[in-house]
Design a protein that fits this description.
about 240 residues, 13 helices, about 75% helix
């Protein structure tokens, strides 16, 4: 598994696209937090709520950009057949691709810890709630893992990296925000809206971001990750 993981890391950082994706992720989040309208400097409150509310939408593009070539390039170039001759199981291949992409995404998120220390330093009172910030970063990590598993899965269905990128974006948006949008329909206002919203990623991400670690939220994220990785493995077996 680890040779595949290292191969993914090397492949990503050997291309200019990889660095551009990470730089854009950090730049957009930084501009929203410190420069654009209603930024944290204008609000006067020591909080990262704006960042954690906006970051998932930028993370959609980052995860799709990282994973779009995972399997699609292997199929297109014919190297997947060579990969099958290695003494690796399908699970090892899938997990290697997944963890390689996840590590890249985490590397992109780690520099945002600067926001936490900067705002804490600028705060005139007690600063940011450490417990809430920890929960929010945990939620962001789990969200990253889910988006990565979705991108890996989509990439295993096509030989075109651009198609994989677009389909990954659509799938992540639907699972992240789709159920919340459906729950707001008047037909579900009789109490079913809450249970429909619970099916969406956004509901559980916001729950963890409050700083309260609920095992139901963790199980939800882990279940989604396992489901998409299992679907990827089944698709590779058919090939």
């Amino acid at each position: 598994m680890w040779p595949i993981c290292k191969k993914e890391l090397k492949q990503f950082f050997n291309s200019l696209t990889g660095y551009i994706a990470i730089i854009v992720f950090l730049l957009v989040n930084g501009l929203v937090l410190f420069v654009f309208r209603n930024n944290i400097l204008e609000s006067g409150y020591a909080t990262l709520d704006e960042y954690f509310a906006f970051a998932p939408w930028v993370l959609l593009f980052l995860a799709a950009a990282i994973t779009m070539r995972s399997f699609s390039d292997e199929f297109r170039s014919g190297t997947f057949e060579i990969l099958q001759t290695r003494p690796l199981s399908k699970w090892q291949v899938v997990n290697g691709k997944f963890f390689g992409s996840l590590i890249v995404a985490v590397i992109a998120i780690l520099p945002t810890l600067v926001y936490y220390f900067s705002i804490n330093h600028l705060a005139s009172t007690s600063g940011i709630d450490a417990g809430k910030a920890t929960g929010s970063y945990l939620g962001l990590f789990l969200l990253t893992a889910v988006f990565t598993s979705i991108g890996i899965c989509i990439s295993s269905f096509t030989t075109n990296a651009v198609v994989a990128f677009i389909l990954s974006l659509i799938a992540c948006v639907l699972l992240y925000f789709g159920f919340s949008a459906i729950s707001e329909l008047p037909v579900f206002s009789n109490g079913a809206d809450y249970y429909i919203e619970m099916l969406g990623i956004d509901f559980h991400y916001r729950s963890i971001s409050r700083g309260v670690l609920d095992t139901r939220d963790v199980i939800y994220f882990l279940s989604l990750i396992c489901f998409f990785l299992l679907l990827t493995r089944q698709n590779l077996r058919k090939r």
